[in-house]
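Collaborator request, handled under Task 6.
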Amino acid sequence: MDFLSLVKKSRSYRSFDESKPVSREILEKLIECARFAPTGVNLQELKFYLSNTPETNAIIQPMTRWAGKIKDKYTLPPKGHMPAAFIIILVDTSIMPDPEKAKTDVGIAAQTILLAAASMNLGGCMIGTFDRSVSKALSLPETLSPALVIALGTPDEEIILEDKTGSVDYYRDENGVHRVPKRTRGELIVG
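Structure tokens returned to the collaborator:
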């Protein structure tokens, strides 16, 4: 698969086939990819909490908020279609005291993880809106500040990318298909 196809395949999925687990081995392979991603001045301040058991997933899932642009029944994964795994990206404040300064590194790591997941026929969703007390609920050390949650699993929904004709807000059509308007290349290139 060429790289552009991989990027297009790496979408924000919000419905998963719960019958297909994500193994600890796969999660560790995703972290291995993120481990080699660049970080500012090579600080390597990120840590990763891996969850693929019903017990820990049940702690994390209710602490997340999904699909901020959609205000109806599609805001959470439907019952029976929850993610099989989560990765919480954490900033180690003993390395970088101000977690806000790690935003770029968090984004690079998250995108690397999702592209690697797509290459393994998995899908995910970056979730920035979540209850920060998730670290306490999981008994994580106080020096680990949660920055982003990534939900992972085998997607069981269709996502269609389309050229923007009006708003860039993503939406569900009358058939429940997730549609994502994208600005055209001509709108993006300056000069």
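The cover message to the collaborator said: "The chain is about 25% helix and 20% strand. The longest helix spans residues 103-119. Please let us know whether this matches your experimental observations."
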